[in-house]
Amino acid sequence: MLTAHTIKVLQSLDKKKFRQKYNLFLVEGNKIICELFNSKVKIKEIFSTDPQKLDRPDLHVTHISENELKKISMLQHPKDSVAVCYIEPQEDWKDREIQLVLDGIQDPGNLGTIIRLADWFGIEQIICSEDTVDVYNPKVIMATMGSFTRVNVVYTDLTEYLSGTENINIGTDMEGENIYSFKKPEKLNLILGNEGNGMRPETEKLIHKNVMVPRFGKSQSTESLNVSMAAGIILGQLFSERK
Amino acid sequence: MLTAHTIKVLQSLDKKKFRQKYNLFLVEGNKIICELFNSKVKIKEIFSTDPQKLDRPDLHVTHISENELKKISMLQHPKDSVAVCYIEPQEDWKDREIQLVLDGIQDPGNLGTIIRLADWFGIEQIICSEDTVDVYNPKVIMATMGSFTRVNVVYTDLTEYLSGTENINIGTDMEGENIYSFKKPEKLNLILGNEGNGMRPETEKLIHKNVMVPRFGKSQSTESLNVSMAAGIILGQLFSERK
């Protein structure tokens, strides 16, 4: 049984303000929840319509009805279980050899896709401007398909960070160097800007090099590739040297 | 003024059944509607909260209120205008040198992203199994950002088509050839399967070669890249020879 109070608290976790207040976030669906078991994410409790499926006697799993699940799920079509997890304070971090840097990414689906992409290429850390969408947003968590457990996502003052890093800061710009002939530096930050406005002028000033994915189509449209797709194609190319 | 009948007809265009009944589909937002002017898409009429912005005296533009727009828009946050366009019967088509072939793609956002990607790389034709999501679905149209005007999307019996084509049929499979060493054939079909189930067994039988994007991350998760992202990375690599 879920108390009215618990339902209210869990529902409030849709908003960053309340995630920060309670230091909690939600993970939905057994498939992603099972990935938590092999990660450092700490689970407070799990609510499930079918606790036996999870088969974790060491965890506090509460049996709930389909109706209760609907009340606490953030999804249009709720899955089987909802895990309530602790948000850990951001740890001290240091530069890795290849990182993504996000300057004001707003769409939760984009951030989730970018985290999943980072995980695929073994990129262990993503550095975000403070106004980038929150990694604990339920839509971001869903879109990562569990990858958020393997990629360290940190939030910081980008201008300060980019001024001090020893990595080469690489931006994307149609006037930049063709990604197919670009020589990958040993240590790099690939910087991705906001969906509509691109990078902030302050960020642009701290770019060392720009790269671009050539357009082969005849379209004269100004619409470029979606930010996560552009990142995917660029990473695909940067990693081609490791084949 | 919009009549109740018109509102009902336009709202019904959310469903494939009614799009086929009326031979009509909707395009929303001036940005994409302006792309129609340079395409072969035939516009029946436009409803706009600000007709002057469109500045096309040759077109039948009806001035509507914000409230009326809300009624006919398929979007959560309606834009400025809605164009009602004619669905043309599928023309005779023949193979192009590089094509995408979709076997049961269900998510409108994925199809839209794939069309946009094709447009970027100058791929002029996408061949879909008959159960692939409808290109005229409003969510597909939105996700293409106008690219649907430049890419020919055809629906056909895939087994029959793949058996008869002279293009090399290339599938994706983690057991396939590494995309970084794969030698691109002159004429090819890149086949992308359903989001959850991949390609149908009947389709798999007609594959000539498989390619894969190597995973550099340590994750043991079975979750692969999203189908459109995988397509983007593969195309990025196939086109590297044209740099």
Comma- or semicolon-separated keywords:
four-stranded mixed sheet; six-stranded parallel sheet; alpha/beta; SpoU_MeTrfase (chains A, B); homodimer; RNA binding (chains A, B); Alpha/beta knot; 243 residues
Question: Can you summarize this structure?
Answer:
The structure is a homodimer of 243-residue chains. By secondary structure, chain A is of the alpha/beta class. Chain A is built from ten helices and ten strands.
Q: Quick one: CATH class of the largest domain in chain A?
A: Alpha Beta
Largest inter-chain contact set: A-B, 41 and 40 residues
Q: What overall form of chain A do the CA principal axes indicate?
A: elongated
Percent of residues in helices of chain A: 25-40%
Task: Note the gap between the termini of chain A.
Answer: 53 Å
Average pLDDT, all residues of chain A: 93
What composes the largest sheet of chain A? 6 strands, parallel
Task: Determine the CATH superfamily of the largest domain in chain A.
Answer: SPOUT methyltransferase, trefoil knot domain
Which segments of chain A are poorly predicted (pLDDT under 50) over 5 or more consecutive residues?
Answer: none
* Whole-number total of structural domains of chain A: 2
Domain MRM3-like substrate binding (chains A, B): 6-83
Organism (chains A, B): Chryseobacterium endophyticum
GO molecular function, one term (chains A, B): RNA methyltransferase activity
Pfam families (chains A, B): MRM3-like_sub_bind, SpoU_methylase
What would your notes on this structure say?
- Two copies of one chain form a homodimer.
- By secondary structure, chain A is an alpha/beta fold.
- Chain A has two domains: 4-86, 60s Ribosomal Protein L30, Chain: A; 98-242, SPOUT methyltransferase, trefoil knot domain (Alpha/beta knot, 3-Layer(aba) Sandwich).
- Helices cover 32% and strands 23% of the residues of chain A.
- Chain A contains ten helices and ten strands.
- Chain A has helices at 4-12, 16-22, 30-37, 51-54, 66-72, 108-120, 138-144, 158-164, 201-204, 227-238; strands at 24-28, 43-48, 61-63, 81-86, 98-103, 125-129, 152-156, 168-178, 188-193, 209-212.
- The radius of gyration of chain A is 20 Å and the shape is elongated.
- The N and C termini of chain A lie far apart (53 Å).
- The mean pLDDT of chain A is 93.
- The A-B interface holds A 35, 113, 116-123, 145-147, 150, 178-181, 213-219, 221, 223, 225-226, 228-229, 232-237, 239-240, 242-243 and B 35, 113, 116-123, 145-147, 150, 178-181, 213-219, 221, 223, 225-226, 228-229, 232-233, 235-237, 239-240, 242-243.
- Chains A, B: Residues 98-235 form the tRNA/rRNA methyltransferase SpoU type domain.
